[in-house]
Write a structure and sequence with these properties.
- The chain has about 130 residues and is an alpha+beta fold.
- It contains 6 helices and 5 strands.
- A 5-stranded mixed β-sheet has the order 3-2-1-4-5.
- It is globular.
């Protein structure tokens, strides 16, 4: 198991994503890249990107939207798939958004494929 958003976690996730192959990502998510800065991790702020339904280290140069949120909230949204936490975080100011906010609506309305759900279970299983 690896600590959420640590280098070891990204290494585990990279391997799982490669093993998963085609995730059958809905077309609305396939072209979506969101840069995310997560605060409050064991190693400080962590930059990541949700790109085409996959987690990536660092920011994507062409992502039109950037989110800033806490590690606790990131875990609830991205690992627990808790959409209510995302909405509450946004409404309460716990999530800061820069850039094209319409991209968030795409993420909220898209339903993950079965392949994405299976991958998420595997990611959660290796996350401390």
């Amino acid at each position: 198991m690896a600590l959420f958003l640590s280098d070891a976690w990204f290494n585990e996730v990279d391997g799982l994503q490669q093993q998963a192959g085609d995730l059958n990502v809905p077309s609305s998510l396939a072209a979506l890249a969101l840069n995310i800065t997560v605060s409050g991790t064991a190693s400080g702020d962590v930059d990541m990107c949700l790109n085409g339904g996959r987690f990536e280290r660092g920011h994507h140069a062409d992502a039109p939207t950037k989110l800033k949120l806490s590690a606790e909230l990131a875990r609830r949204i991205f690992l627990d798939n808790d959409q209510a936490a995302g909405m509450q975080g946004f409404m309460s100011g716990q999530i800061k958004v820069e850039g094209d906010m319409s991209k968030l609506m795409v993420m909220q309305s898209a339903r993950p494929s079965e392949q994405q759900k299976d991958l998420l279970k595997k990611i959660k299983a290796v996350t401390e």
